[in-house]
Design brief:
This protein is of the alpha+beta class. Helix content is about 25%, strand content about 25%. It is built from four helices and eight strands, in the order αββαββαββαββ. The strands form two sheets. A four-stranded antiparallel beta sheet has the order 2-1-3-8, with helices on one face. It has a four-stranded antiparallel beta sheet with strand order 4-7-5-6, with helices on one face.
Length: about 190
Amino acid sequence: MPDDRGRIMLAIARAAISSSLGKSLAADESAPWLSEPGACFVTLTINGELRGCIGSLEPCRPLLQDLKQNALAAAFRDPRFPPLSERELESVRVEVSLLSPVAPLAFRDEADALAQLRLGVDGVILEYGRNRGTFLPQVWEQLPTPREFFRHLKMKAGLHPNFWADGVRLSRYTVEKFKEADTPGGTP
């Protein structure tokens, strides 16, 4: 993939959101790598505060489609926030995280799992029965210790922060992160 892919993906995500709010914005969607399967998360912030974050963990559709659908979902369907308004469009900053393939983590117990986590590098998926949650590697910035990170991930998955059982499954992934600048126009 070329080095300008961050700029391209950020422009596509912003254009998808803008178009849904009636503001036409052009974005080049012609790069051949956009038609390959890919998984990404789109994170929106306003003044550094989370405003929406939705993504895919597995590459089950072309990256272009995944990117546009996740941008729209982050802006308008994240259940934690009301839909993004036209008034917020100028203040929102877009971040795209392009995911690596997900790899299962082999561990003996919770302590072993915690010891294997790479701070600031690993995104983690926790699964137990029907419960599932993930944190992108960027979450390490707010939760910098493995124990704290893991406790919050359990809560996100709908489990008690001290929960542990033999059936817990963990996987990890890395991301390439691209973020708009914190200035109007939002270029990286």
